[in-house]
Write a structure and sequence with these properties.
Bound molecules: zinc ion
Oligomer: single chain
CATH architecture of the largest domain: Orthogonal Bundle
CATH superfamily of the largest domain: Neutral endopeptidase , domain2
CATH class of the largest domain: Mainly Alpha
Helix content: 40-55%
Largest sheet: 4 strands, mixed
Shape: globular
Length: 714
């Protein structure tokens, strides 16, 4: 339930239950874990040139920030295609850099943030031999070891050699299962996922959850689809596997055979997996089971030793999120030759670590994960990748420095003020809206208990148990990954820690967590052009305001609506209200089914939650903006636009993005977020406030016919 795709692998409904499988760094979005952690974590970052940042840097003296007319494409009427009209000029002058899958306002902000993080890391790395192990020492040493190319080259595959030897030495099914558990305990992913999550029906407490997993390609359809484009990706995947096994030292025939084995095993896992759309039903993912039930479900997998091997022999019961998957996994373990499963584990170790090893591994990994899957032309400079890894593994140590330098108390106060106004708009709409009194009471309770976290955590994560030094980078990463895995597994059986964050402060994104009923806005998204303390309300409510409204509305989207004010999975809707909500949600699904990109249709069911959140978020932001500016004297129009127009122009601007076709197709196949242009065209076509601002008439493409118009809160 994040605002946008993360740029690693597309984000997915998995944030719903922070299924940070046995200990990926908490901040690597859960989806990239389930997706097998192909190291596609090459965020669009680090660009400098061409388009100047839209909004000038904040200055100490307040001044209004208008809309830059060079963003427009004046050859297009706003009534015909508002996205193209509002940002056509901007996207035309912002070509995608070779090392990025996409480029836009979001990526530019990420790039600026990346530069700031680099400054922090280089300064920290420059301070040698501190006497105590401070957060600054850890980020400095982590970064320095990642930049020590000579040592990394010389080591080759050495950091994963102990794992490869261990897997090669497996002699029986027991040894194999022990190795899977050991990989999980070290934060690597194989076969399935296991980790801590709030209990969906008792959300103050953390339980263990077993979830489908073990795939390397982004989604099960990559293995199963008969479309030519997907078959082509599978061919390239086979070559990639073969190349990687060759790098691991296998002879050509053996490497090819190993590649085919991995694809065969992963295809079986894919056949056992639910689709992403199917995973949007939280009730379908809730099956508490004790040990004896687990034994019955998977007689070929020994959960008792698994729990012991991950360091939690005390676990008595868990949530088995995807029972059918585990039944099939049981069959896979029983019927697959041991050598094939060993080959699969070898592959998992190699692919998860390739980006931390010598350049031959790293480049082979990029060729597939970057070039084939996302269409990226060249690899990002090393420093950007290492900055990203440092943020993934030590994000709150780095984040402390980042907010010290980049997030003012004034910005925090203004953002909080906006959150309160938008919450107020939501209360107002619930009170005057279409729900019955009983449902209204529950909905209002949910708004009242919803927590807003702004900027950075009140309590920083404690990394004192993690050793970071200037030795091999791959070893620093392995220790950090294991640290996060241990930390994750240690939560099971304890109360939920309300101070925890699931994104780092330097992440340009936001999220709603249904089990914690909280909305979270890291410092890095509270920057221009999304949020500018010097901009007028129209601009801020149109961009960050719509985002705040988006996250609030997630509490009521097709998934979020199933959780109550305490974050428990419980149906609190009166039947008639539920039917009305469903009718509205289905309208949004139908509308998005109509959007086609390059021959590929948007999956309305997959993007339903995000599209509901976009529509509802805009409705809330608009009302809050109107409330906040009521009685304002003489609105400024010196940029040629009314404030109402600026509200929608800034909304469109927040989605201005160029995408490579490969990446656009990847998003369409896997991401619960619609393509950026549809996030503008879709919701606005429904909104009377937009139609009035830009004189959109019935029959214009930007006016959805009255009888098909979607509304969420209004
Ligand atoms: Zn969202």
């Amino acid at each position: 339930m994040e605002l946008r795709a993360t740029g690693t692998l597309p984000s997915s409904p998995e944030i719903l239950r922070s299924r940070v499988a046995s200990g990926a760094p908490q901040y690597v979005p859960a989806d990239s874990v389930t997706l097998g952690s192909l190291p596609v974590a090459l965020e669009p970052r680090g660009w400098r040139a061409a388009a100047p940042p839209l909004a000038p840097a904040a200055s100490p003296t307040a001044r209004a920030v208008g809309f830059d007319p060079t963003n427009l494409d004046p050859t297009v009427r706003p009534q015909d295609n508002f996205y193209q009209y509002a940002v056509g000029g901007r996207i035309a002058r912002s070509p995608i850099p070779d090392d990025k899958p996409s480029w836009g306002v979001d990526a530019e902000l990420v790039a600026q943030t990346q530069e700031k993080l680099r400054g922090i890391l280089e300064a920290s790395a420059g301070r040698r031999n501190p006497l105590v192990a401070t957060p600054e020492q850890k980020i400095g040493d982590f970064y320095a070891s990642g930049m020590d190319v000579a040592a990394i080259e010389q080591a080759g595959a050495a950091p994963i050699r102990p794992w490869l030897d261990r897997i090669a030495g497996i002699e029986d099914a027991r040894g194999l299962q022990d190795a899977v558990a050991a990989m999980h305990a070290d934060g690597m992913h194989a076969l399935f996922s296991f980790g801590a999550t709030p209990d969906a029906k008792d959300s103050r407490n953390v339980i263990g959850e077993a979830f489908q997993g073990g795939l390397t390609l982004p989604e099960r359809d990559y293995y199963l689809s008969q479309e030519e484009s997907q078959k082509d990706v599978r061919e390239k995947y086979l070559s990639h596997l073969e190349n990687m096994f060759t790098l691991l030292g296998r002879l050509p025939d053996a490497a090819r055979e190993a590649a085919e084995t991995v694809l065969r095993v992963e295809t079986k896992i894919a056949e056992a997996s639910l689709s992403r759309a199917e995973m949007r039903d939280p009730n379908a993912l809730y099956h508490p089971m004790d040990r004896s039930l687990l034994r019955e479900l998977t007689p070929s997998f020994d959960w008792q030793s698994y729990f012991a091997n991950i360091g939690r022999p005390d676990i008595e019961s868990i949530n088995m999120a995807t029972p059918d998957f585990f039944i099939k996994m049981n069959g896979l373990l029983r019927d697959t030759p041991l050598e094939d499963l060993k080959t699969y584990l070898t592959w998992r170790v190699a692919t998860e670590n390739a980006e931390f090893l010598s350049s031959n591994f790293e480049q082979e990994d990029f060729n597939f994960a970057g070039r084939t899957l996302k269409g990226v032309q060249s690899q990002q400079p090393r420093w950007k990748r290492v900055v990203k890894h440092t943020d993934d593994y030590l994000g709150e140590a780095l984040g402390q420095k980042f907010v010290e330098q980049n997030f003012s108390a004034e910005a925090k106060a203004r953002a909080l003020d906006m959150v309160e106004n938008i919450k107020g708009a939501l209360r107002e709409k619930i009170v005057t809206g279409w729900m019955s009194e009983e449902t209204k009471r529950e909905a209002l309770a949910k708004v009242d208990t919803m927590v807003a976290k702004i900027g950075y955590p009140d309590k920083w994560k404690d990394y004192s148990g993690l050793v970071v030094d200037r030795g091999l980078f791959g070893e620093n990463v392995a220790r950090a990954r294991a640290f996060h895995a241990r930390e994750n597994l240690a939560k099971i059986g304890k109360p939920v820690d309300p101070t925890e964050w699931e994104m780092t402060p330097s992440t340009v994104n936001a999220y709603y967590h249904p089990l914690k009923n909280e909305i979270v806005f890291p410092a890095a998204i509270l920057q221009p052009p999304y949020f500018d303390v010097n901009a007028d309300d129209a601009s801020n409510y149109g961009s960050i305001g719509a985002t705040i409204g988006h996250e609030l509305t997630h509490g009521f989207d097709d998934e979020g609506a199933q959780f109550d004010a305490q974050g428990n999975l419980r149906n609190w809707w009166q039947p008639a209200d539920e039917a009305e909500f469903k009718r509205r949600a289905d309208g949004v699904e139908r509308q998005f089914n109509e959007f086609v990109y390059d021959g590929q249709r948007t999956d309305g069911k997959l993007v339903k939650g995000e599209s509901i959140a976009d529509l509802g978020g805009l409705e809330l932001a608009w009302t809050a903006y109107k409330n906040a500016t009521e009685g304002d004297p003489a609105p400024r129009t010196d940029d040629g636009f009314t404030p109402d127009q600026r509200f929608f122009l800034n909304y469109a601007l927040s989605w201005a993005t160029n995408l490579r076709p490969e990446y656009a197709h990847l998003i369409l196949s896997t991401d619960p977020h619609p393509l950026p242009q549809f996030r503008v065209l879709g919701p606005l076509a429904n909104l009377p406030s937009f139609h009035a601002a830009f004189d959109v008439k019935p029959g214009d493409p930007m006016a959805r016919p009255e009888e098909q118009r979607n509304r969420l809160w209004d």
